[in-house]
Each structure stands twice: as structure tokens, then as C-alpha cells.
Amino acid sequence: MIIEDLDSFYKNMGIDSKLISLSKHIEEDLKERFAYIDQIAEYNQLKILKAMQDNRVSDAHFAATTGYGYNDIGRDTLESVYADVFHAEDALVRPQLISGTHALTVALAANLRPGDELLSPVGKPYDTLEGVIGIKETKGSLAEYGITYKQVDLLADGSFDYDKIKEAIGPKTKMATIQRSKGYATRPTLSVEQIGQLIAFLKEIKPDIICMVDNCYGEFVELIEPTDVGADLCVGSLIKNPGGGLAPTGGYIVGKTEYVENAAYRLTAPGLGKEAGATLGINSSLYQGLFMAPQVVSGALKGAVYAAKQYEHFGFDVLPNGNESRHDIIQAVTLNSPEAVIAFCEGIQAAAPVDSFVTPVPGSMPGYTCDVIMAAGAFVQGSSIELSADAPIRPPYSVFFQGGLTWYHAKYGILMSLQKLYEKKLISFDK
Ligand SMILES: *Cc1c(COP(=O)(O)O)cnc(C)c1O
Asked: Does the residue 115 lie in any domain?
């Protein structure tokens, strides 16, 4: 029987039989949920396929350009595909956007001028943006260029503080930055629908406010994207969801032509804009990664939901919980002790296709006030669409993990994390 073969393979791969049988119950429980996730992937697959067909993607688009990169039809067509997928006017999709933070920096710096004010109506942005904006004094920040910043936190229940947002908008408010994913914070992730409501509210008060959404970790988790609900700009990293695990580097900025054009002038040089920028032969990976992204994101989502169910079973707090709707691929698990956090990360690392023989240990990291542990065994350095986990070693000892290029790998990684906790007697089956 093939199933018996599978069970003994898991045992050979170090998973206790009690975990294997528990896993079967949990997967049975999740059947309907997984079917729904599959449907979203199917829809997004068609969306991307249609955009590629409409743009007549062809062999010639995979050729490398060098030097200035003029007439890179692969690059230009890919940008047109991205614009169509996001139902946006234009897109900038470049290997020269070195990360999500860089893409966000370019989008902000390109569309703000000295004297303008930036508003975050959804609380504190992602850690790296603190330096970019100048919330934390940093060389080259927007603050250094005379761009001010206002922030309105979410209410205790995670909803928008509409009164305070209204108060915060003034004549200088040029742009709003809206982060979809909770990132590594404890607030809820915003649904695209919620983002649409917020944008409608902002535009009612100030029709010309530029609404930018940090879409990191959110792409293809839902049927629609922020650009479908009024976002003027939507920004993300290609080593997260939309690169499908195949993009070796890059970022994207999609939205209104004027704002994307500003971003292109900021990324390259005033007057050059989108016309230049060699792609050095990586176009095919960017196309193929986008093509694979819905399937890859569905695997990561299944892994996140499955982990929530597994860890709930053992009595841990999880965010989101096993039944909530999902708007990004990040799963947080509160493990209550440093030993459990370390065991969890050891399990994720041991399950990796790359560097499985390495043992992660907590260490100091720039920008953190406590030690941090990270588990990653990725084909692309730092890729977090691949199965990966990070945790600051401080109460309440929460670990944040995400990714998995396939559902089967995500499942094995989570089983391995539980196995490590089990071996260290941090969980038990007799309750
Ligand atoms: C990952 C992430 C970023 C920054 O991306 P990097 O590629 O790591 O620079 C920004 N915002 C959110 C919400 C993220 O998840």
C-alpha cells in the first residue's frame, strides 16, 4: 500500500508515528479549507496565464540584455504582464530593486517632496521602514529630506481609528502607506477589502492623497489585490510570493502611470526612467516564477493553516488561528519558552533541502535589542517564500514562520518542528 510506504518514509525521515497519525486527523479536518485555497490558486493561475497570453509572451522575451539594457523587450513585456495581473496602469519590475524595503523606499522617495507629509494609518510599519522614513534617525532617511511623518495606530480590536485618521490628514499630507501584512507584529493582517474601505475613507477626505500599499507576503492569497480596490501604488519583493521561489532577486512597483514613472526616474535617473536597466538573463526566471506563484503561495498557505491547527492541538497560542480567514502567508506561534523556540527552528532547519545539517543558534542582529534565531535552508538567500522561521528570544517567545515551495515540504517542516519539541519533552501526547 502506498500510504504505508509513505508512513514508513516519514518514520525513516525522523517523524514519530504518533505525529503521523495526528497529522492524518488534522489533514482530514482541513480538507474543505484546502479545497478553498486550491480554488484561489486556480483563479490566480488563470489570471496570470491570461496576462501572459494577452501580452504575447514569447521565447524572445527570455534573452539577456547587458550594459544600458535598452530595448529589453523581455523586461518591458514582463512589466506589462504585471500591470495586467494587478489591473494597474503600469509596473516597474526590476532586478535592480534589490528587496522589498528598496522597492518601498523608491516608491516613497519618488513620490514625496520636501515639505510633504507621509501618513501611516495602520500603525508602525515594518522594522526596516523605520530607518527609511526616519522614525529611527538614519542617514539618508525621508526625514533628512524634510519629509515629515504621522502615524495613527489601529484600535485595540485591530480596526481603523477613523477619527484620529481624519484629524491626522492635513494640507501637507501627500501620501499614505498601508501595510497589508502584520509582518512580525501582533496586529491582524488586513484583508484587501478592509484596505479598500480605508482607501475610500482617505480619498473622501483628501481626493488626491496617494495611497501606497506594502503588499509583501500578500500577493495571490486572495482573488483580488489592493490595486483592485483603489490603491494608487502596490509594492512588493520578488523573493516573496510573486517570484514563486524562482526569481533570484528583484522587486515590483505597480499602479498609476504617473507614480510608477516617478519611481522609475528615482530608481535609474531623471530622464532615463524605465528605458534602461539590463536584466542579464534572469527574465525567464521572473516570468516562470510569476507563473508558478499561485501554486507556491497555496502550498505556503496550507502549511500556515496546518501549523496553526497542529500547534493549537498542543495548546499553544497561534496567530491567526486555525479557522480564521487568511490575508498573508505568515504564521505566528507563541511557544512560551526559549527552549521551545530553539527546538522549533531546529526542526525547520533540519527539514530543509539546503543546509539541513546546520544547527541554528540565537545570536545578536543589528537593529534588535535581544538575540534572534533564524532557520532557513533556501535556494535563494533570504527568500521567505521558501520555508523559513525567525524568532526574537524574548517573552512571549513567539516564532514567525512562512513559506514552503510545496505543501509537502511545509508539512514535513512543521512535523519536524513538532518532533524536536517532542524529543525535548516540550510537548506530549498524553493529555
Ligand atoms: C518583508 C517585508 C518588507 C521588506 O522586505 P525585504 O525584502 O525584507 O526588504 C516590508 N514590509 C513587509 C510587510 C514585509 O513582510
From this structure: yes
